[in-house]
Amino acid sequence: MDHDIVAIADTNCVLIAAAEMEQLLTKSSNLTNALWCSTTADSAVLRERIIDQGRRDWHERIAHSLYERLVRYRVVGGTESNSLPFSLTQNELADATGMTPVHVNRARTGSARLRVSRRPNFI
Number of structural domains, the chain? Predict the structure, then answer.
């Protein structure tokens, strides 16, 4: 692969042999459908990232990233409000948005003046 997948929280991972995975996909149409849906979602995220890098300025990149995290937290029941725990470092947020840590710092200090975040470690 030309990229890494990195967890920012505790995670359990399992290695499944290719032959065993083929058997599972042959036997379970539900699993096959779930993986196909995941693949199409990944493709949609890729298209969104291409737009993100090519057309959005730094305000929009960070806002979109934060909104996406909020939606994901809502989907898994992590929040029902308009705030979520935020544990990413400036470097991690920079990597996620294709920006430099300096730009992220400037955006963070600018948003603090705008009162985007009223509690530490929450957005």
Answer: 1
